[in-house]
Amino acid sequence: MSKNDTHMTMRVVNHIRNMIETGGLQPGDRIPPEREFARKLRISRASLRTGIGYLAAMGVMDVRHGVGTFVAEGPPEIGKSSLSLLGALHGFQSWQMFEARRILESELAALAAERGKEQHFTALSEEVAEMYATVDNPIEYLIHDVRFHRVIAQASGNPILAALMETITSALYDERRKTAERSRDLRQSADLHREIYKAIRSRNAHEARAVMERHLAMAQSAQAQEAAESGTNGHAAASHAAAPAKRGKAGEKSV
Amino acid sequence: MSKNDTHMTMRVVNHIRNMIETGGLQPGDRIPPEREFARKLRISRASLRTGIGYLAAMGVMDVRHGVGTFVAEGPPEIGKSSLSLLGALHGFQSWQMFEARRILESELAALAAERGKEQHFTALSEEVAEMYATVDNPIEYLIHDVRFHRVIAQASGNPILAALMETITSALYDERRKTAERSRDLRQSADLHREIYKAIRSRNAHEARAVMERHLAMAQSAQAQEAAESGTNGHAAASHAAAPAKRGKAGEKSV
DNA sequence: GCCCCGGCAGTGGTCCGACCACTAGAATAC
DNA sequence: GTATTCTAGTGGTCGGACCACTGCCGGGGC
Questions:
Q1: Cβ neighbours of B243 in A, within 8 Å
Q2: Do B4 and A245 count as a contact with CB atoms less than 8 A apart?
Q3: A41 Cβ partners below 8 Å, 6+ apart?
Q4: pLDDT digits (tens, 9 = 90+) for B89-136
Q5: Quick one: residue A204, left, alpha or beta (phi over 0 = left, psi -120 to 50 = alpha)?
Q6: Which helix (H) or strand (E) is A1 found in, with range?
Q7: CA distance A152 to A193
Q8: Using CA atoms, how far apart are residues B24 and B17, in angstroms rounded to an integer?
Q9: Nearest protein residue to the C1' atom of C24, measured from CA
Q10: pTM assigned to the model
Protein backbone atom coordinates (compact mmCIF):
# COMPACT_ATOMS: atom_id res chain seq x y z
CA MET A 1 0.00 0.00 0.00
CA SER A 2 0.97 3.59 -0.31
CA LYS A 3 3.03 4.34 2.73
CA ASN A 4 3.10 7.90 3.85
CA ASP A 5 6.39 7.20 5.53
CA THR A 6 9.30 9.45 5.84
CA HIS A 7 10.24 8.19 2.42
CA MET A 8 11.42 11.28 0.65
CA THR A 9 9.84 10.25 -2.59
CA MET A 10 6.44 9.98 -0.94
CA ARG A 11 6.95 13.27 0.80
CA VAL A 12 7.41 14.91 -2.56
CA VAL A 13 4.49 13.05 -4.10
CA ASN A 14 2.19 13.97 -1.27
CA HIS A 15 3.31 17.55 -1.33
CA ILE A 16 2.54 17.91 -4.99
CA ARG A 17 -0.62 15.89 -4.64
CA ASN A 18 -1.72 18.33 -2.03
CA MET A 19 -0.92 21.30 -4.22
CA ILE A 20 -3.03 19.72 -6.93
CA GLU A 21 -5.96 18.83 -4.73
CA THR A 22 -6.12 22.27 -3.19
CA GLY A 23 -6.19 23.74 -6.63
CA GLY A 24 -2.82 25.42 -6.28
CA LEU A 25 -1.51 23.51 -9.24
CA GLN A 26 -3.37 23.11 -12.50
CA PRO A 27 -2.56 21.25 -15.69
CA GLY A 28 0.06 23.19 -17.60
CA ASP A 29 1.41 24.93 -14.54
CA ARG A 30 5.10 24.89 -13.90
CA ILE A 31 6.76 23.86 -10.67
CA PRO A 32 9.81 25.72 -9.37
CA PRO A 33 13.28 24.77 -10.58
CA GLU A 34 14.65 21.68 -8.92
CA ARG A 35 17.36 23.41 -6.94
CA GLU A 36 15.01 25.99 -5.56
CA PHE A 37 12.17 23.58 -4.90
CA ALA A 38 14.51 21.18 -3.14
CA ARG A 39 15.74 23.97 -0.88
CA LYS A 40 12.18 24.94 -0.03
CA LEU A 41 11.22 21.37 0.82
CA ARG A 42 14.42 20.91 2.83
CA ILE A 43 15.43 17.85 0.91
CA SER A 44 18.23 17.12 -1.49
CA ARG A 45 17.82 17.70 -5.16
CA ALA A 46 18.35 13.99 -5.78
CA SER A 47 15.40 13.03 -3.61
CA LEU A 48 13.24 15.65 -5.19
CA ARG A 49 14.14 14.25 -8.57
CA THR A 50 13.15 10.77 -7.42
CA GLY A 51 9.72 11.99 -6.48
CA ILE A 52 9.30 13.97 -9.67
CA GLY A 53 10.40 10.96 -11.66
CA TYR A 54 7.73 8.91 -9.96
CA LEU A 55 5.06 11.41 -10.87
CA ALA A 56 6.40 11.71 -14.40
CA ALA A 57 6.26 7.95 -14.84
CA MET A 58 2.60 8.04 -13.90
CA GLY A 59 1.91 10.74 -16.43
CA VAL A 60 1.15 13.40 -13.85
CA MET A 61 4.21 15.53 -14.50
CA ASP A 62 5.90 16.49 -17.72
CA VAL A 63 9.64 17.08 -17.45
CA ARG A 64 11.29 19.01 -20.27
CA HIS A 65 15.05 19.11 -20.36
CA GLY A 66 16.35 22.63 -20.39
CA VAL A 67 12.91 24.14 -19.94
CA GLY A 68 11.29 23.09 -16.71
CA THR A 69 8.88 20.69 -15.09
CA PHE A 70 5.16 21.06 -15.67
CA VAL A 71 1.92 19.49 -14.60
CA ALA A 72 0.79 17.28 -17.44
CA GLU A 73 -1.59 18.81 -19.91
CA GLY A 74 -3.99 17.31 -22.36
CA PRO A 75 -6.09 14.19 -21.98
CA PRO A 76 -5.16 11.96 -19.06
CA GLU A 77 -3.17 8.82 -19.73
CA ILE A 78 -3.31 5.81 -17.52
CA GLY A 79 -0.22 3.68 -17.61
CA LYS A 80 0.00 4.07 -21.33
CA SER A 81 3.63 3.12 -21.55
CA SER A 82 3.39 0.47 -18.90
CA LEU A 83 0.89 -1.82 -20.54
CA SER A 84 3.23 -3.22 -23.13
CA LEU A 85 5.80 -3.90 -20.45
CA LEU A 86 3.27 -5.54 -18.20
CA GLY A 87 2.04 -7.43 -21.21
CA ALA A 88 5.44 -8.86 -21.93
CA LEU A 89 5.87 -9.65 -18.27
CA HIS A 90 2.59 -11.44 -17.73
CA GLY A 91 2.23 -12.82 -21.20
CA PHE A 92 -0.85 -10.94 -22.29
CA GLN A 93 -2.31 -12.35 -25.45
CA SER A 94 -3.35 -10.37 -28.47
CA TRP A 95 -6.91 -11.57 -28.28
CA GLN A 96 -7.15 -10.37 -24.72
CA MET A 97 -6.17 -6.88 -25.73
CA PHE A 98 -8.63 -6.97 -28.57
CA GLU A 99 -11.34 -8.20 -26.29
CA ALA A 100 -10.67 -5.41 -23.83
CA ARG A 101 -10.73 -2.91 -26.63
CA ARG A 102 -13.90 -4.34 -28.06
CA ILE A 103 -15.72 -4.07 -24.77
CA LEU A 104 -14.50 -0.58 -24.01
CA GLU A 105 -15.12 0.89 -27.43
CA SER A 106 -18.51 -0.70 -27.84
CA GLU A 107 -19.75 0.92 -24.66
CA LEU A 108 -17.97 4.12 -25.58
CA ALA A 109 -19.89 4.18 -28.86
CA ALA A 110 -23.14 3.62 -27.04
CA LEU A 111 -22.42 6.42 -24.62
CA ALA A 112 -21.40 8.70 -27.44
CA ALA A 113 -24.73 8.05 -29.10
CA GLU A 114 -26.49 9.08 -25.92
CA ARG A 115 -24.42 12.08 -24.96
CA GLY A 116 -22.57 13.24 -28.05
CA LYS A 117 -22.79 16.92 -28.92
CA GLU A 118 -23.09 18.50 -32.32
CA GLN A 119 -19.42 19.32 -32.42
CA HIS A 120 -18.56 15.66 -31.99
CA PHE A 121 -20.83 14.63 -34.81
CA THR A 122 -19.18 17.15 -37.05
CA ALA A 123 -15.71 15.92 -36.17
CA LEU A 124 -16.73 12.31 -36.72
CA SER A 125 -18.19 13.12 -40.07
CA GLU A 126 -15.04 14.86 -41.16
CA GLU A 127 -12.88 11.95 -40.16
CA VAL A 128 -15.08 9.53 -42.08
CA ALA A 129 -14.72 11.70 -45.16
CA GLU A 130 -10.97 11.76 -44.73
CA MET A 131 -10.92 8.01 -44.39
CA TYR A 132 -12.73 7.56 -47.67
CA ALA A 133 -10.30 9.98 -49.23
CA THR A 134 -7.27 8.05 -48.10
CA VAL A 135 -8.24 4.43 -48.66
CA ASP A 136 -5.19 4.12 -50.88
CA ASN A 137 -2.84 5.52 -48.31
CA PRO A 138 -2.75 3.27 -45.27
CA ILE A 139 -0.49 5.59 -43.32
CA GLU A 140 -2.80 8.56 -43.70
CA TYR A 141 -5.84 6.41 -43.23
CA LEU A 142 -4.62 5.18 -39.89
CA ILE A 143 -4.33 8.71 -38.57
CA HIS A 144 -7.97 9.42 -39.25
CA ASP A 145 -8.97 6.02 -37.99
CA VAL A 146 -7.33 6.75 -34.67
CA ARG A 147 -8.84 10.19 -34.53
CA PHE A 148 -12.29 8.85 -35.23
CA HIS A 149 -12.16 6.52 -32.28
CA ARG A 150 -10.68 9.22 -30.12
CA VAL A 151 -13.53 11.59 -30.88
CA ILE A 152 -16.00 8.89 -29.90
CA ALA A 153 -14.19 8.45 -26.62
CA GLN A 154 -14.38 12.16 -26.06
CA ALA A 155 -18.05 12.28 -26.95
CA SER A 156 -18.80 9.59 -24.40
CA GLY A 157 -18.31 12.16 -21.69
CA ASN A 158 -16.31 9.77 -19.56
CA PRO A 159 -12.61 10.66 -19.53
CA ILE A 160 -11.73 7.61 -17.48
CA LEU A 161 -13.05 5.19 -20.05
CA ALA A 162 -11.45 7.29 -22.74
CA ALA A 163 -8.10 7.05 -21.01
CA LEU A 164 -8.43 3.31 -20.61
CA MET A 165 -9.22 2.93 -24.27
CA GLU A 166 -6.22 5.04 -25.18
CA THR A 167 -4.04 2.80 -23.08
CA ILE A 168 -5.23 -0.36 -24.78
CA THR A 169 -5.13 0.89 -28.34
CA SER A 170 -1.72 2.38 -27.76
CA ALA A 171 -0.36 -0.97 -26.64
CA LEU A 172 -2.10 -2.63 -29.56
CA TYR A 173 -0.56 -0.35 -32.15
CA ASP A 174 2.76 -0.73 -30.47
CA GLU A 175 2.58 -4.36 -31.38
CA ARG A 176 1.20 -4.16 -34.86
CA ARG A 177 2.91 -1.16 -36.35
CA LYS A 178 4.56 -3.35 -38.91
CA THR A 179 1.53 -4.96 -40.45
CA ALA A 180 0.13 -2.41 -42.81
CA GLU A 181 -3.39 -2.91 -43.89
CA ARG A 182 -4.35 -3.57 -47.46
CA SER A 183 -6.50 -1.06 -49.17
CA ARG A 184 -9.31 -3.41 -50.04
CA ASP A 185 -9.81 -3.80 -46.30
CA LEU A 186 -9.72 -0.08 -45.86
CA ARG A 187 -12.68 0.47 -48.10
CA GLN A 188 -14.71 -1.91 -46.03
CA SER A 189 -13.38 -0.37 -42.87
CA ALA A 190 -14.44 3.08 -43.97
CA ASP A 191 -17.91 1.81 -44.66
CA LEU A 192 -18.18 0.45 -41.17
CA HIS A 193 -16.96 3.69 -39.67
CA ARG A 194 -19.62 5.50 -41.60
CA GLU A 195 -22.23 3.17 -40.21
CA ILE A 196 -20.97 3.81 -36.71
CA TYR A 197 -21.14 7.51 -37.31
CA LYS A 198 -24.69 7.30 -38.56
CA ALA A 199 -25.80 5.25 -35.59
CA ILE A 200 -24.23 7.70 -33.16
CA ARG A 201 -25.62 10.71 -34.94
CA SER A 202 -29.12 9.27 -34.85
CA ARG A 203 -28.57 8.56 -31.15
CA ASN A 204 -29.11 4.87 -31.62
CA ALA A 205 -26.96 3.54 -28.79
CA HIS A 206 -27.78 -0.09 -29.41
CA GLU A 207 -26.91 0.10 -33.07
CA ALA A 208 -23.73 2.03 -32.38
CA ARG A 209 -22.57 -0.60 -29.95
CA ALA A 210 -23.39 -3.40 -32.33
CA VAL A 211 -21.63 -1.93 -35.33
CA MET A 212 -18.60 -0.98 -33.32
CA GLU A 213 -18.41 -4.52 -32.07
CA ARG A 214 -18.61 -5.84 -35.58
CA HIS A 215 -15.95 -3.43 -36.76
CA LEU A 216 -13.51 -4.44 -34.07
CA ALA A 217 -14.19 -8.12 -34.52
CA MET A 218 -13.29 -7.75 -38.17
CA ALA A 219 -10.19 -5.78 -37.39
CA GLN A 220 -9.11 -8.45 -34.98
CA SER A 221 -9.56 -11.34 -37.38
CA ALA A 222 -7.89 -9.33 -40.12
CA GLN A 223 -4.84 -8.76 -38.01
CA ALA A 224 -4.81 -12.33 -36.78
CA GLN A 225 -4.74 -13.47 -40.36
CA GLU A 226 -1.93 -11.11 -41.28
CA ALA A 227 0.06 -12.22 -38.28
CA ALA A 228 -0.46 -15.83 -39.26
CA GLU A 229 0.66 -15.18 -42.82
CA SER A 230 3.77 -13.31 -41.85
CA GLY A 231 4.70 -16.25 -39.74
CA THR A 232 5.61 -15.02 -36.33
CA ASN A 233 3.99 -13.85 -33.20
CA GLY A 234 0.51 -14.25 -31.99
CA HIS A 235 1.67 -13.42 -28.52
CA ALA A 236 2.41 -10.11 -26.99
CA ALA A 237 5.81 -11.26 -25.92
CA ALA A 238 7.88 -11.64 -29.00
CA SER A 239 11.16 -10.47 -30.28
CA HIS A 240 11.22 -6.74 -30.50
CA ALA A 241 13.60 -6.41 -33.35
CA ALA A 242 16.28 -3.85 -32.76
CA ALA A 243 14.71 -1.51 -35.26
CA PRO A 244 15.35 2.12 -34.37
CA ALA A 245 11.63 2.60 -33.76
CA LYS A 246 11.10 6.05 -35.04
CA ARG A 247 7.88 7.26 -33.64
CA GLY A 248 5.09 8.01 -36.05
CA LYS A 249 2.38 10.55 -35.64
CA ALA A 250 -0.26 8.12 -34.51
CA GLY A 251 -0.39 9.52 -31.05
CA GLU A 252 0.18 13.19 -31.06
CA LYS A 253 -2.80 15.34 -30.45
CA SER A 254 -6.34 14.93 -29.39
CA VAL A 255 -8.78 16.10 -31.94
CA MET B 1 7.85 7.64 -25.72
CA SER B 2 10.05 4.64 -26.47
CA LYS B 3 12.90 6.68 -27.68
CA ASN B 4 16.07 4.68 -27.66
CA ASP B 5 17.96 7.84 -27.07
CA THR B 6 20.94 8.33 -24.95
CA HIS B 7 18.58 9.05 -22.11
CA MET B 8 20.00 6.96 -19.36
CA THR B 9 16.64 6.18 -17.88
CA MET B 10 15.41 4.77 -21.17
CA ARG B 11 18.59 2.82 -21.61
CA VAL B 12 17.88 1.11 -18.32
CA VAL B 13 14.22 0.59 -19.12
CA ASN B 14 14.98 -0.90 -22.50
CA HIS B 15 17.66 -3.11 -21.06
CA ILE B 16 15.32 -4.55 -18.49
CA ARG B 17 12.50 -4.73 -21.00
CA ASN B 18 14.73 -6.78 -23.18
CA MET B 19 15.65 -9.08 -20.33
CA ILE B 20 11.95 -9.59 -19.70
CA GLU B 21 10.98 -10.16 -23.30
CA THR B 22 13.73 -12.68 -23.90
CA GLY B 23 12.55 -14.53 -20.87
CA GLY B 24 15.69 -13.88 -18.90
CA LEU B 25 13.68 -12.19 -16.20
CA GLN B 26 10.54 -13.63 -14.69
CA PRO B 27 8.14 -12.29 -12.09
CA GLY B 28 9.70 -12.69 -8.70
CA ASP B 29 13.23 -12.69 -10.06
CA ARG B 30 15.78 -10.43 -8.52
CA ILE B 31 17.99 -8.04 -10.38
CA PRO B 32 21.63 -7.49 -9.38
CA PRO B 33 22.49 -5.01 -6.63
CA GLU B 34 22.47 -1.44 -7.81
CA ARG B 35 26.20 -0.87 -7.52
CA GLU B 36 27.02 -3.99 -9.45
CA PHE B 37 24.30 -3.54 -12.06
CA ALA B 38 25.34 0.05 -12.64
CA ARG B 39 28.91 -1.02 -13.22
CA LYS B 40 27.80 -3.67 -15.68
CA LEU B 41 25.66 -1.18 -17.62
CA ARG B 42 28.46 1.40 -17.57
CA ILE B 43 26.27 4.06 -16.04
CA SER B 44 26.18 5.79 -12.71
CA ARG B 45 24.20 4.36 -9.88
CA ALA B 46 22.03 7.48 -9.82
CA SER B 47 20.94 6.99 -13.40
CA LEU B 48 20.27 3.34 -12.83
CA ARG B 49 18.10 4.29 -9.88
CA THR B 50 16.17 6.71 -12.04
CA GLY B 51 15.33 3.97 -14.48
CA ILE B 52 14.44 1.50 -11.76
CA GLY B 53 12.24 4.12 -10.14
CA TYR B 54 10.45 4.58 -13.44
CA LEU B 55 9.76 0.88 -13.70
CA ALA B 56 8.76 0.69 -10.06
CA ALA B 57 6.28 3.51 -10.54
CA MET B 58 4.66 1.55 -13.33
CA GLY B 59 4.37 -1.51 -11.17
CA VAL B 60 6.89 -3.55 -13.10
CA MET B 61 9.56 -3.62 -10.42
CA ASP B 62 9.31 -4.05 -6.70
CA VAL B 63 12.04 -2.34 -4.69
CA ARG B 64 12.55 -3.50 -1.12
CA HIS B 65 14.82 -1.46 1.08
CA GLY B 66 17.62 -3.51 2.55
CA VAL B 67 16.65 -6.58 0.57
CA GLY B 68 16.87 -6.05 -3.15
CA THR B 69 14.97 -5.17 -6.29
CA PHE B 70 12.63 -7.69 -7.83
CA VAL B 71 10.39 -8.09 -10.83
CA ALA B 72 6.85 -7.55 -9.63
CA GLU B 73 4.89 -10.61 -8.69
CA GLY B 74 1.21 -11.30 -8.44
CA PRO B 75 -1.57 -9.97 -10.62
CA PRO B 76 -0.63 -7.09 -12.90
CA GLU B 77 -1.55 -3.59 -11.87
CA ILE B 78 -2.10 -0.80 -14.33
CA GLY B 79 -1.51 2.63 -12.94
CA LYS B 80 -3.28 1.67 -9.77
CA SER B 81 -1.77 4.44 -7.69
CA SER B 82 -1.89 6.97 -10.47
CA LEU B 83 -5.62 7.05 -11.06
CA SER B 84 -6.49 8.96 -7.92
CA LEU B 85 -3.82 11.53 -8.73
CA LEU B 86 -4.98 11.87 -12.30
CA GLY B 87 -8.50 12.06 -10.98
CA ALA B 88 -7.69 14.97 -8.75
CA LEU B 89 -5.82 16.59 -11.57
CA HIS B 90 -8.47 16.28 -14.25
CA GLY B 91 -11.46 16.51 -11.98
CA PHE B 92 -12.79 13.02 -12.49
CA GLN B 93 -16.25 12.70 -11.06
CA SER B 94 -17.47 9.90 -8.87
CA TRP B 95 -20.19 8.94 -11.29
CA GLN B 96 -17.60 8.55 -14.03
CA MET B 97 -15.63 6.08 -11.98
CA PHE B 98 -18.79 4.20 -11.13
CA GLU B 99 -19.79 4.13 -14.75
CA ALA B 100 -16.42 2.75 -15.76
CA ARG B 101 -16.65 0.16 -13.06
CA ARG B 102 -20.18 -0.76 -14.02
CA ILE B 103 -19.22 -1.34 -17.62
CA LEU B 104 -16.12 -3.32 -16.85
CA GLU B 105 -17.61 -5.52 -14.19
CA SER B 106 -20.77 -6.24 -16.13
CA GLU B 107 -18.77 -7.59 -19.02
CA LEU B 108 -16.45 -9.35 -16.63
CA ALA B 109 -19.43 -11.13 -15.11
CA ALA B 110 -20.68 -12.14 -18.54
CA LEU B 111 -17.28 -13.49 -19.49
CA ALA B 112 -17.01 -15.32 -16.20
CA ALA B 113 -20.32 -17.00 -16.94
CA GLU B 114 -18.97 -18.16 -20.25
CA ARG B 115 -15.50 -19.23 -19.23
CA GLY B 116 -15.52 -19.78 -15.46
CA LYS B 117 -14.07 -23.01 -14.16
CA GLU B 118 -15.31 -25.13 -11.34
CA GLN B 119 -12.71 -23.74 -8.99
CA HIS B 120 -14.00 -20.24 -9.57
CA PHE B 121 -17.55 -21.25 -8.85
CA THR B 122 -16.44 -22.80 -5.62
CA ALA B 123 -14.54 -19.70 -4.58
CA LEU B 124 -17.48 -17.48 -5.45
CA SER B 125 -19.83 -19.62 -3.45
CA GLU B 126 -17.57 -19.48 -0.44
CA GLU B 127 -17.34 -15.72 -0.56
CA VAL B 128 -21.09 -15.40 -0.78
CA ALA B 129 -21.43 -17.55 2.30
CA GLU B 130 -18.89 -15.41 4.12
CA MET B 131 -20.79 -12.31 3.14
CA TYR B 132 -23.97 -13.61 4.62
CA ALA B 133 -22.08 -14.53 7.74
CA THR B 134 -20.67 -11.04 8.19
CA VAL B 135 -23.60 -8.79 7.36
CA ASP B 136 -23.23 -7.29 10.80
CA ASN B 137 -19.55 -6.58 10.37
CA PRO B 138 -19.01 -4.09 7.54
CA ILE B 139 -15.25 -4.33 7.75
CA GLU B 140 -15.20 -8.08 7.35
CA TYR B 141 -17.97 -7.94 4.80
CA LEU B 142 -16.02 -5.59 2.59
CA ILE B 143 -13.13 -8.02 2.42
CA HIS B 144 -15.30 -10.76 1.00
CA ASP B 145 -17.08 -8.33 -1.25
CA VAL B 146 -13.80 -7.33 -2.82
CA ARG B 147 -12.69 -10.93 -3.08
CA PHE B 148 -15.91 -11.92 -4.78
CA HIS B 149 -15.44 -9.37 -7.51
CA ARG B 150 -11.82 -10.29 -7.84
CA VAL B 151 -12.63 -13.94 -8.38
CA ILE B 152 -15.06 -12.95 -11.11
CA ALA B 153 -12.36 -10.92 -12.78
CA GLN B 154 -10.07 -13.90 -12.61
CA ALA B 155 -12.72 -16.22 -13.95
CA SER B 156 -13.21 -13.96 -16.95
CA GLY B 157 -9.91 -15.20 -18.32
CA ASN B 158 -8.82 -11.74 -19.34
CA PRO B 159 -6.09 -10.38 -17.07
CA ILE B 160 -6.12 -7.02 -18.81
CA LEU B 161 -9.73 -6.33 -18.02
CA ALA B 162 -9.14 -7.66 -14.53
CA ALA B 163 -6.28 -5.24 -14.04
CA LEU B 164 -8.34 -2.34 -15.29
CA MET B 165 -11.12 -3.21 -12.91
CA GLU B 166 -8.67 -3.42 -10.06
CA THR B 167 -7.42 0.04 -10.92
CA ILE B 168 -10.88 1.56 -10.89
CA THR B 169 -12.14 -0.10 -7.75
CA SER B 170 -8.94 0.72 -5.97
CA ALA B 171 -9.38 4.40 -6.74
CA LEU B 172 -13.02 4.17 -5.77
CA TYR B 173 -12.28 2.67 -2.38
CA ASP B 174 -9.55 5.17 -1.89
CA GLU B 175 -12.21 7.81 -1.98
CA ARG B 176 -14.89 6.15 0.07
CA ARG B 177 -13.00 4.36 2.78
CA LYS B 178 -14.63 6.49 5.41
CA THR B 179 -18.27 5.90 4.61
CA ALA B 180 -19.05 2.58 6.20
CA GLU B 181 -22.05 0.78 4.92
CA ARG B 182 -25.04 0.05 7.06
CA SER B 183 -25.95 -3.52 7.68
CA ARG B 184 -29.42 -3.35 6.23
CA ASP B 185 -27.78 -2.54 2.91
CA LEU B 186 -25.39 -5.42 3.38
CA ARG B 187 -28.15 -7.97 3.60
CA GLN B 188 -29.53 -6.78 0.30
CA SER B 189 -26.06 -6.65 -1.16
CA ALA B 190 -25.40 -10.25 -0.20
CA ASP B 191 -28.61 -11.29 -1.89
CA LEU B 192 -27.53 -9.65 -5.09
CA HIS B 193 -24.12 -11.27 -4.95
CA ARG B 194 -25.82 -14.59 -4.54
CA GLU B 195 -27.89 -13.91 -7.62
CA ILE B 196 -24.78 -13.02 -9.55
CA TYR B 197 -23.15 -16.20 -8.43
CA LYS B 198 -26.10 -18.29 -9.51
CA ALA B 199 -26.21 -16.66 -12.91
CA ILE B 200 -22.53 -17.26 -13.47
CA ARG B 201 -22.69 -20.81 -12.23
CA SER B 202 -25.53 -21.59 -14.60
CA ARG B 203 -23.50 -19.98 -17.37
CA ASN B 204 -26.15 -17.42 -18.06
CA ALA B 205 -24.02 -14.58 -19.34
CA HIS B 206 -26.89 -12.26 -20.04
CA GLU B 207 -28.35 -12.64 -16.60
CA ALA B 208 -24.96 -12.27 -14.93
CA ARG B 209 -24.35 -9.02 -16.74
CA ALA B 210 -27.78 -7.70 -15.87
CA VAL B 211 -27.61 -8.50 -12.19
CA MET B 212 -24.10 -7.16 -11.86
CA GLU B 213 -25.25 -3.97 -13.45
CA ARG B 214 -28.14 -3.73 -11.03
CA HIS B 215 -25.87 -4.40 -8.08
CA LEU B 216 -23.42 -1.69 -9.03
CA ALA B 217 -26.16 0.80 -9.79
CA MET B 218 -27.51 0.28 -6.31
CA ALA B 219 -24.08 0.56 -4.76
CA GLN B 220 -23.57 3.81 -6.59
CA SER B 221 -26.81 5.39 -5.49
CA ALA B 222 -26.25 4.13 -1.96
CA GLN B 223 -22.89 5.79 -1.78
CA ALA B 224 -24.14 8.95 -3.39
CA GLN B 225 -26.80 9.16 -0.75
CA GLU B 226 -24.34 8.61 2.06
CA ALA B 227 -22.01 11.18 0.66
CA ALA B 228 -24.83 13.68 0.41
CA GLU B 229 -25.87 13.03 3.99
CA SER B 230 -22.45 13.28 5.53
CA GLY B 231 -21.67 16.24 3.37
CA THR B 232 -18.05 15.20 3.12
CA ASN B 233 -18.60 14.72 -0.57
CA GLY B 234 -15.35 13.39 -1.85
CA HIS B 235 -13.22 14.42 -4.69
CA ALA B 236 -12.30 17.24 -6.86
CA ALA B 237 -15.79 18.12 -7.92
CA ALA B 238 -15.52 21.28 -5.89
CA SER B 239 -12.19 22.49 -7.12
CA HIS B 240 -13.20 21.68 -10.64
CA ALA B 241 -16.12 24.01 -10.67
CA ALA B 242 -15.05 26.60 -8.18
CA ALA B 243 -11.43 27.09 -9.13
CA PRO B 244 -11.26 30.76 -10.07
CA ALA B 245 -8.60 30.50 -12.72
CA LYS B 246 -5.78 32.04 -10.81
CA ARG B 247 -3.34 32.10 -13.62
CA GLY B 248 0.04 33.67 -13.53
CA LYS B 249 3.20 32.61 -11.77
CA ALA B 250 2.92 29.04 -10.77
CA GLY B 251 4.30 27.05 -7.92
CA GLU B 252 5.54 29.84 -5.74
CA LYS B 253 3.48 28.86 -2.75
CA SER B 254 4.57 26.83 0.21
CA VAL B 255 1.90 24.36 1.06
C1' DG C 1 19.40 -28.15 23.93
C1' DC C 2 16.73 -23.94 22.97
C1' DC C 3 15.88 -19.14 22.57
C1' DC C 4 16.92 -14.41 22.53
C1' DC C 5 19.77 -10.77 21.14
C1' DG C 6 23.49 -8.23 19.40
C1' DG C 7 26.53 -7.60 15.75
C1' DC C 8 27.58 -7.85 10.85
C1' DA C 9 27.35 -7.83 5.99
C1' DG C 10 24.64 -6.65 2.09
C1' DT C 11 21.38 -3.73 -0.07
C1' DG C 12 18.58 0.23 -1.06
C1' DG C 13 18.00 5.50 0.43
C1' DT C 14 19.81 10.12 0.89
C1' DC C 15 22.94 13.57 0.45
C1' DC C 16 26.52 16.74 -1.63
C1' DG C 17 28.79 19.34 -5.07
C1' DA C 18 30.47 19.46 -9.45
C1' DC C 19 29.87 19.35 -14.20
C1' DC C 20 27.27 18.20 -18.75
C1' DA C 21 23.37 18.98 -22.19
C1' DC C 22 19.61 21.21 -23.72
C1' DT C 23 16.39 25.27 -24.58
C1' DA C 24 14.83 29.77 -25.26
C1' DG C 25 15.60 34.30 -25.65
C1' DA C 26 18.80 38.16 -25.80
C1' DA C 27 22.61 40.24 -27.96
C1' DT C 28 25.17 40.68 -31.97
C1' DA C 29 26.53 40.55 -36.79
C1' DC C 30 25.17 40.81 -41.42
C1' DG D 1 14.96 42.77 -41.05
C1' DT D 2 17.18 38.41 -40.68
C1' DA D 3 20.43 35.13 -39.40
C1' DT D 4 23.91 33.90 -36.15
C1' DT D 5 26.08 33.61 -31.73
C1' DC D 6 26.13 34.06 -26.87
C1' DT D 7 24.30 33.42 -22.46
C1' DA D 8 21.46 32.49 -18.49
C1' DG D 9 18.52 29.09 -16.67
C1' DT D 10 17.01 24.49 -16.33
C1' DG D 11 17.02 19.51 -16.17
C1' DG D 12 20.53 15.27 -16.62
C1' DT D 13 24.59 12.69 -15.15
C1' DC D 14 28.25 11.65 -12.32
C1' DG D 15 30.91 9.50 -8.32
C1' DG D 16 31.62 8.98 -3.90
C1' DA D 17 30.39 9.30 0.86
C1' DC D 18 27.38 8.10 4.37
C1' DC D 19 22.65 6.64 6.42
C1' DA D 20 18.86 3.10 7.23
C1' DC D 21 16.87 -1.10 6.77
C1' DT D 22 16.79 -6.31 6.46
C1' DG D 23 18.23 -10.92 7.15
C1' DC D 24 21.23 -13.92 9.18
C1' DC D 25 24.54 -15.90 12.07
C1' DG D 26 26.93 -16.67 16.26
C1' DG D 27 27.41 -15.96 21.27
C1' DG D 28 25.35 -15.74 25.69
C1' DG D 29 21.76 -16.79 28.86
C1' DC D 30 18.09 -20.06 30.22
A1: 23, 26
A2: yes
A3: A11, A12, A15, A48
A4: 998 999 999 999 999 999 999 999 999 999 999 999 999 999 999 998
A5: beta
A6: none
A7: 11
A8: 10
A9: A67
A10: 0.87
